[in-house]
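Board notes (copied after class):
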Amino acid sequence: MIGYAKVNSEKLLIVGCGDLGRRLAHRLAPEGYEVTGLRRHPPENSDVLRYQAVDTANAEAMKEVLASGFGVIVVTMTPSERGDEGYRRAYVQTCENLVAGLKASGKAPRLILYVSSTGVYGQGEGEWVDESSPTLPNRASGERLLEAEQVIGSSGFPHCIVRFSGIYGPGRHRLLEQVRRGRATLSGRYTNRIHSEDCAGVMAHLIERHRLGEKVAPLYLASDCEPAPMAEVVNWLSMHLKVDEAKFAPDQGGQGKRCSNRRLRDTGYEFLYPDYRAGYKALLAEEGF
């Protein structure tokens, strides 16, 4: 539960409904939302989430889904293939088809929430970035995410774009495995992280704020409260995993950036895991590392 009064049933569509979508459904379904998730190859339905098998790159299929009307639409896509074409299909084409389908249906949602990434920032000298910082993506994925943001931003529909930093949590063990196998590097580069439960919490918080008529900005940067050098995170994990720190090689790969979450925190959102120590401590206990 997220602490708001329950509402009458409202239809919520999650486009590209993977891990984050499932977590969001578990938060909002008890509040009265009727949740539908779109995936190419969906799992079985659950008590909080009904799936439809849809390729979001198929414009006609999207029109058919959207014809029934939804109060809230959340877009959280994962490319089926790496490379520029995969990013274009997942991010840009999905958003184009969404906007076209909504205009064809004549049924405007009260809110579109688009999940983007801090990968749209290319700064690397250790500076702080926020919603007003210039976007200078240095990868194809960041360029396509930014292009998709522009599709949503120019759609004419009420919208909110959330740029998440590096997501970790249950089932997201890349750094843990690198440390456990002695393959992590002691880099001074800043790393910005957010636990997957906080991702769901942020989305639910903004959706409910909007429902209550409270101000929701068109853009938020969502990252935990303590950017930290990667070497610090690796050393902390190695201590808890009982891995010899001497295994790790130094890395002089630049300074990275630091992501500010001030605008998000000013809305009253309180992080479940405000820093990497809180998040990874819970993850280590939950996942049995």
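Comment from the instructor: Residues 126 and 257 are 4 Å apart (CA to CA). Residues 1-5 have pLDDT under 50 and may be disordered.
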